[in-house]
Design a protein that fits this description.
Elements (H helix, E strand, L loop, with lengths): L2 H25 L5 H19 L5 H16 L5 H20 L6 H25 L1 H17 L10 H34 L30 H19 L7 H41 L1 H9 L1 H14 L5 H17 L2
Helix pairs in contact: 1-2, 1-3, 2-4, 2-5, 2-7, 3-4, 3-9, 4-5, 5-6, 5-7, 7-12, 8-9, 11-12
């Protein structure tokens, strides 16, 4: 297997992780999904850098992942595209500009997962304002009082939660980097146990493209008035201090502000920014047409090797099966 073929399959796995893994984890109600998606990206980027001789391979892989993500999941929120771009940018800087290849995966994990954690915190703060964190403090103190635990300590529980949240992401990023460093050794030690001739590709599945429904109602007078009022309420909630002493009113304003920001984002800003992103990715899609076609041609083979790896790993259970499954996947992809 050529390195280019292995890299293409790593790009497919990265694109699948960004497009579908988060949704699957949400469906299974697994917390901290960004930790798993970001950690997977760290592993794939590190392996692409390890098995590629081209300094621009990470940037090219990032563009291809964005294109595939856009084709497979066109309604993905824009911050998710930005996260993928930042993951690729961090990887390119660490592996090529700074040339810190021995510790780059660990630094990449640290930067990627720290950025992911703070990105969500910033979004929550913009959406709900500081009232959100104040409400957490009040709620935790109320719960403590119910159990006769003194809550008079001068502790901001919301900030404590933020610190723990960021710390968990940092640990997850470092762990992902360590795993990425170890995978090539796993491949070398495990490759002789696999008979690649047992892997039989299945038929290619078609990808259904859904057309985005247009929302033209907001161009009418009623729509303009609605967005104007929502924008006024948002500005008012951030600039006035008249309601600072009344917590119920502050919480009501927080809810109204979050709903207003959500509606303005998804109904007014997102459609135009998505169209702008579509134009950029469509140009890149034409530029990388052969690579995109090659990726989709490899999907049956990828599906077959994942199925083969899962069946082979059934000799173990729990974490042991997951580790064995991933070992099979990476060995099959990365073995020469």
């Amino acid at each position: 297997m050529s390195n280019s073929n292995a890299i293409t399959k790593l790009i497919i796995l990265w694109a699948f992780s960004e497009s579908a893994l988060g949704g699957m984890l949400h469906a299974l109600r697994i917390p901290l999904t960004g930790l798993f998606v970001g950690g997977s990206a760290v592993i794939f980027i590190s392996l692409i850098a390890h098995f590629s001789n081209n300094n621009t391979s990470i940037l090219k892989a990032t563009v291809l992942v964005l294109i595939i993500k856009f084709i497979v999941a066109p309604y993905t929120p824009l911050p998710a595209y930005f996260s993928v771009f930042m993951e690729g940018l961090f990887g390119f800087i660490l592996f090529n500009i700074l040339k810190m290849k021995k510790i780059a995966p660990i630094l990449l994990g640290f930067l990627t997962l720290t950025f992911s954690a703070f990105q969500k915190i910033v979004i929550y703060t913009i959406m709900f304002g500081m009232t959100f964190w104040e409400s957490i403090d009040i709620f935790i103190k109320f719960v403590l009082n119910q159990f006769f635990i003194s809550s008079n300590l001068n502790i901001s529980f919301s900030y404590l939660i933020i610190v723990v949240y960021v710390f968990i992401h940092i640990l997850g990023g470092i762990f992902s980097g360590i795993i990425a460093i170890r995978i090539p050794k796993w491949v070398a030690n495990f490759a002789h146990d696999i008979d690649l001739s047992q892997i039989v590709p299945e038929s290619t599945s078609e990808i259904v493209k859904k057309k985005q429904k247009s929302r033209k109602w907001y161009t009418k007078l009623s729509g303009i008035l609605f967005f104007s009022l929502a924008l006024f309420l948002i500005v008012l909630s951030y600039t006035t201090s008249s309601f600072e002493s009344n917590l119920p009113i502050k919480i009501a304003i927080m809810v109204i502000r979050s709903i207003s920001i959500t509606l303005i984002w998804f109904l007014l800003i997102a459609p135009y920014t998505t169209k702008f992103l579509q134009r950029i990715l469509n140009k890149k899609k034409n530029e990388y047409a052969s690579e995109v076609e090659n990726i989709f041609n490899l999907l049956p083979e990828m599906k077959a090797l994942v199925k083969f790896s899962w069946e082979k790993s059934e000799v173990k259970t729990g974490y042991g099966r997951i580790k064995l499954f991933l070992s099979y996947v990476f060995v099959i992809i990365l073995s020469e």
